[in-house]
Protein 1
Amino acid sequence: MTDIISSMRPEIENELMHQVSRLDEEHSLPFKEMLTYHLGWTGEGAGEEATGKRIRPLLLLLTTATCGTDWKKALPAAAAVELVHNFSLVHDDIQDNSPKRRGRPTVWVKWGSPLAINVGDALFVLSNLAMTDLASDFPTDRVLESVRILQQTCLDLTRGQYLDMSFEDRTDVKVEDYWMMVAGKTASLLSASCHIGAILGNADESTVEAYRSFGHFLGLAFQVQDDILGIWGDENVTGKSAASDLIERKKTLPVLAGLGKQGPFAEFWNNVPITPDNVEEAAKLLASESAYTYTHDIAKQMTDLAINSIREADPQGEAGDALMDLADRLLHRTT
Amino acid sequence: MTDIISSMRPEIENELMHQVSRLDEEHSLPFKEMLTYHLGWTGEGAGEEATGKRIRPLLLLLTTATCGTDWKKALPAAAAVELVHNFSLVHDDIQDNSPKRRGRPTVWVKWGSPLAINVGDALFVLSNLAMTDLASDFPTDRVLESVRILQQTCLDLTRGQYLDMSFEDRTDVKVEDYWMMVAGKTASLLSASCHIGAILGNADESTVEAYRSFGHFLGLAFQVQDDILGIWGDENVTGKSAASDLIERKKTLPVLAGLGKQGPFAEFWNNVPITPDNVEEAAKLLASESAYTYTHDIAKQMTDLAINSIREADPQGEAGDALMDLADRLLHRTT
């Protein structure tokens, strides 16, 4: 971890805590507790493992810094993108019936769905309030532009979430549907983080566009890699059982590519329930129909597009080096 | 209905449709349909009965108009407060397990909770995007101030919602807890509607404060009346079975007042399940312990405070008359 990132991390946590402290009021303290639990600060299992990687705020702050603007001024926006991310996770966990998040019981498991819905709502509201704090350090038109970008992203998120849920019952999902879903669910917020970072950094139009585009392709590459790891990942490295995406019947890119072949994998998928016992066979069948190489090639393409975009943005200084470094780690991850 | 309100109503619907049209995209049309169903425009039972009264946008527009500003410019804010209201209703219906809303099956009943959570989220996002549209007609600092007011209100809503849910399992709820919950759940958004209307109308500070305060007390009076109607309302007039709040064991103001007496009503409440057969007895018992007159007096006090505030604001012109008229109808309702 480079020095600048080490100095950003505690400031991000402080800013998040400051934003969540809007719930500091005797009567709502048990409610605040549900938010701080989810954010990884309180409750059983609290600590670094439970907070998540804070990738979105880091991307935002590094982008602002490399544009030559004091990144500390952008902290409310960094908190805002992280709060949006966590709002979507809390609701996602209810929608997907997920029992665990970052190794701990999810909010809905601990407090029930009605309260968990409210926790997600409050995280979103706190994000919106955080954005208004930018007005003390930035011109109001730039603040409003940032608000607009973030809200447009939130609309993309809900649309992506709708598509994702609708895929479950559909048998006609195509690769282009996949891209639309992933653009909304994963790429949009990563893109907005870089985009807002550049806007607050007062970058010129073409640089802003380069950062926006970098975040977008980073998100797509990230998701496609995730799809690969979810089927052929090394269990010992990823920490989750390999091929679990197949058992959960997730319509990931390799699966859609495989189904498109209408060959042995499609036959298997449509007729045999995939269990821990036959999942390795299913994964091999899928690879034998070139779905592994196909998806790998696409991940490579998206990675190249992301790298081209960030080279175009040409990040400078210590923050620039750290940003290139972070991009590199995100684009070549094995976990 | 006065002339100015008749001309506002269709414009409010148009603006809402314009805001919701952000979901016009082939792939998200079935999702958009869920929002338009909830807003009363599509699906079985669509029509005036299903749209709700649009009280919040009317209050906002009338306030702006009476300050001498063209109310049409404030339409995006009017849509925004109505969208926030509906976002909270959709989530509330899931949280309360409510099967019906405005006489029709609720969104979660029709499409399941996971999608309904997403519908509420999208309504909230659309509200936030609507607010950014104000920038084309108002100075950005006034837009940001309005955004801040609305988001602070949304935080009050989630806090009020938390308190409401926590009351269900608590046996120690006091009258002061009730006020805190109602201030968040009901009064805050009515207050924000008037407050934002006055800010956009560029009213002076004391007038802004008078409108804000009017909305606040209007909300409290409205809720206390609702509590009375929910126990002693005329079934033939309210359209819902009288005393249903007692059967649902809602901790309304009259109930909390009655429980505070620790007399025969408290005894009944704590030991006998309230059913359609004994609910009339329970309502009479509650009235005999002065809970009816107590609550009625409080409703009168809140109404007086609301009227004092609006008199202080001194609304002018046709919009002013219409606002006084609307306030009067809301404060002396029987349904």
Protein 2
Amino acid sequence: MEASIVPYDCIIVGAGPAGITAGIYLVRKNLDVLIITLDVGGQAKLSTDVENYTGFTMIPGDELVRRFEEHLNSFNVNIVFEKVKAIKKENDIFRVETKERSYWSKTVIIASGKKPRTLNVPGEEKLIGKGIYYTTLFNAPYFKDLPVAVVGGGNSAMQAILELSKFTQKIYVINITEDLTGDEILKERVKKLGFVKIFGNCKVVEVKGENRVEEIEVENVKTNEKFSLKVNGLIVLIGLVPSLDFELPEGLKINEKNEIDVDQNCCTNIPGLFAAGDVSDVKWKQIIIAAGEGAKAALSAYEYLMSRREFLEEKF
Amino acid sequence: MEASIVPYDCIIVGAGPAGITAGIYLVRKNLDVLIITLDVGGQAKLSTDVENYTGFTMIPGDELVRRFEEHLNSFNVNIVFEKVKAIKKENDIFRVETKERSYWSKTVIIASGKKPRTLNVPGEEKLIGKGIYYTTLFNAPYFKDLPVAVVGGGNSAMQAILELSKFTQKIYVINITEDLTGDEILKERVKKLGFVKIFGNCKVVEVKGENRVEEIEVENVKTNEKFSLKVNGLIVLIGLVPSLDFELPEGLKINEKNEIDVDQNCCTNIPGLFAAGDVSDVKWKQIIIAAGEGAKAALSAYEYLMSRREFLEEKF
């Protein structure tokens, strides 16, 4: 580290519910905080109607994120929109490298969340954004009266079905399990629609079309039978994978799902490094849980800084 | 268990941020849920201005609780206002006894929160409500232009000082540490007032007065010097203790602070028994954290029920 570099007290990677909450907590402690992120809101922004963020009976995901952002902005928080390439620990200080430059910090909170899992089948990559989407937000009206397939059977998939049902009655569901999973309340609403055709025990094996999605090839995983469906759109909601496409500090413990191992208080196995929200191995991926975990990570980072007064002599 | 008794799927003890969130999550799963509590909101209701519940830039604690309650009531949740006396596990089923009756359930989530720690000094008990309070909510205006002492130096104490400062400039702070603790942002606001007299390293050893608080006896814990202060009120904000004044299932693990041991997913060491929020050993006691933990406990209870299909055969 060069002598002229003054490290931040904390760098937060990501600005979903966990990163934003961590930011709010740390700024209220008068610490020097920098948030590095590509967007604000993360997966929360892609939820249609959120009914389980305590305090809001029902709120669209993007509106909830707008409130999170407004809350964060009520403090003066440094935020840069850059892509993180590496986090390295060098002599007790972390170096966070983005495409553009390097930043130094005494602590780091990784709150980079998750991103949608892709199908990984022929035809998918070239048709992304051309009929293939990983959300129904903003794009459901495109499918007015057109056939569309939803891949998946959990809460996100069911919310997508409900959203699409406002515009079309030609909805297919391709679901790897026999029946829909997720909240009963959503299952009931989907079944009540009456026109949704569910293909259980099925997966998409190919997407066909030149400039737009035209047809999907589906396989029944029990019978190995294959069949085709003509569709104009394919909404893929088969879960998420951790957003960890950057170099991590040497020795950081990661579980088999590629999530960062944390203890009850969001500490990783590397002193000064914390993780919160969907990128951590906390079992349940929920907005309210991620927000709570962000607060924990911030308070753990603060405690770590306070326990190392050499870091903070100038400050306290 | 008598043959005629149909147990609930889950009984939640307490209706603070953790209990309410657990209730919302479980009702959305179409489970039979009963909340047993003495009040709604818990400690959250006693916060003056909450600035760190993500999504609400600034909201009074009682207003936040009103929104929690409204959110819970948007579902049909069974709630009884009774005092829990014992939780017992009998042949895989929990029996929750209140003063009035017994309830049976397949799972229990303890979310009974914390209650204010008392001074435990002569004169305190008889003057509770007669000048001694454990909150400034509703009572700050009583002290218009009168001398009042705040015991404690953390966030709650500082919020109380700020609230009292709207009505009186005669504010003493009796604090066991040298300086105020808690968020820098609050410390700055308190110090900016200019008229708050802080007695560091001090504790209250006696409260004097016949029908009302008239005087407090204070001791400096470093010098052992004692002195008296004439005050009309004493606001005690020296932390909280777990609300566990009922019989717990045999063998339940509790830590040295009398908090219930939980893992990262709010499971206790007793199968089917979960704990969430301030009553658990999660280090940080915050509204947003308690809400997140409530969601975790609910999802863990749901997973437990689903893993024991004999409990749910009639349902799924």
